[in-house]
Design a protein that fits this description.
Elements: E1 2-5, E2 16-19, H1 28-52, H2 62-84, H3 99-120, H4 122-127, H5 134-141
Antiparallel strand pairs: 1-2
């Protein structure tokens, strides 16, 4: 067991951290570094579960569950990459802050793009998507 006195950073409100490890011969620096890496992984899984419903699969086969997880990881990676590179800052009125807000903004842009494509191609909208709404079909025809 290691006791670490002091704050990790200026935002840390804890004066003492207790780290338990099985690495008895590791240095304090190694243990703290491993802990900080683990914290990043825990944060990633929290985002995956809260924002991308990583743990809400309804599949029974291992291979299908793995595919679902891969899709979640791809979506998380793309969203995180867009957030880190500030791609939405120039095209949106209000800048998204959380990963969930980025996901919602990307979803809205995809819907807008789809609507734009459908409105330009009535045959695609009628044949491919089988739209029932007369009001929406009328909007596409305009």
């Amino acid at each position: 067991m290691w006791w670490v006195f002091g704050k990790w950073n200026k935002d840390d409100d804890t004066d003492v951290h207790i780290l338990i490890t099985h690495q008895l011969k590791a240095s304090a620096k190694t243990i703290i570094t491993n802990y900080l890496f683990r914290w990043g992984i825990e944060h990633c899984f929290k985002e995956l579960k809260d924002t991308f419903y990583f743990d809400h699969y309804q599949l029974r086969h291992t291979r299908k569950i793995e595919r679902y997880w891969n899709l979640c990881l791809i979506a998380w990676t793309l969203t995180y990459w867009i957030k880190q590179n500030a791609y939405l800052g120039k095209i949106l009125e209000t800048k998204p802050m959380s990963l969930n807000e980025f996901k919602q903004a990307i979803n809205s842009l995809l819907e807008l793009s789809s609507l734009s494509t459908l409105s330009k191609n009535k045959k695609l909208a009628d044949d491919y998507f089988k739209i029932k709404s007369k009001r929406l079909k009328k909007k596409f025809a305009a």
